[in-house]
Structures are given as C-alpha cells and as structure tokens.
Amino acid sequence: MSLYLLCLVLFCIGLYGVLRKRNLVKIIIGLGIIEYSLNLFFVLLGYKFHGRAPIDAQDQIILNMVDPLPQALVLTSIVIGLGITALVISIAIRIYEKYGTFDITKIKRLRG
C-alpha cells in the first residue's frame, strides 16, 4: 500500500510543477514526472509478490503469474510519452526563438 502512496506523492509533485511553475522547461519536467508516476502505478497494478514471468510452458503449472497486460501498456505509454515530450520541447524551443524567454507570464504580455 505504501508504494501506491509513493506513486500518488510523485504524481502530486509533477502536478505542482505543471500548475504552479511559470517556466516552460519546469512545466515540461513536471509533465515527465506525471508520466513516470502513472507508468509506475500501472506496473504496480500488475505486480505480484513472489510472482513469476508470464511465460507459458507445457511442463509448468500456471500459478502466481505476473499480469503481462500492464507491462505492455507501459511500454506503449513510454513510446507515446517520448513522442509527446519531443513535440513539447520543440514547441518550447520555437517559443524561445520568437519571444526570447521561457516565462509564460512574459510571453502573454509580448503577444505578437
């Protein structure tokens, strides 16, 4: 149960970074922390103590096997998250080239 609470704490740290910080780089880092906390949560959902790998062999009894579905979802999520992170970083670079700052309060004032 404590691992789930640690995932929640990690999620709240990332959410704080997204909602309260005014620097685009810090907001992107907060999004990354949120993504990692959700991936960790999905992995914890499929984990079993003293579980074995989900490989089915004819001579083995299927007992206490780890659920492979959350692991597959996390692998897909990592790839999608990498693409989103690259897109957000490229947008932040273009904003910096146009306005010369990463501060979103200054960007709102400089509309042009």
Give descriptors for this structure.
112 residues, Helix Hairpins, 0% strand, elongated
Structural features, described:
The protein has helices spanning 2-20, 24-46, 69-99, 104-109. By secondary structure, the protein is mainly α. The chain has a single domain (2-48, 63-109), classed as Helix Hairpins (Orthogonal Bundle), CATH 1.10.287. The termini are far apart.
List the helices and strands and how they pair.
Elements: H1 2-20, H2 24-46, H3 69-99, H4 104-109
CATH topology type: Helix Hairpins
Distance between the termini: 51 Å
- Gyration radius, rounded: 20 Å
Overall structural domain count = 1
Report the helical percentage. over 70%
Number of extended strands: 0
What are the low-pLDDT stretches, counting only 5+ consecutive residues below 50? Answer: none
> What is the annotated CATH architecture?
Orthogonal Bundle
Largest sheet: none
Q: Briefly, what CATH class?
A: Mainly Alpha
**Beta-strand percentage?**
under 5%
What's the average pLDDT?
A: 89
Helix-strand topology string: HHHH
Outline type: elongated
User: How many H/I helices?
Assistant: 4
SS-based class? mainly alpha
Entry summary:
The protein has helices spanning 2-20, 24-46, 69-99, 104-109. The chain is mainly alpha-helical and 112 residues long.
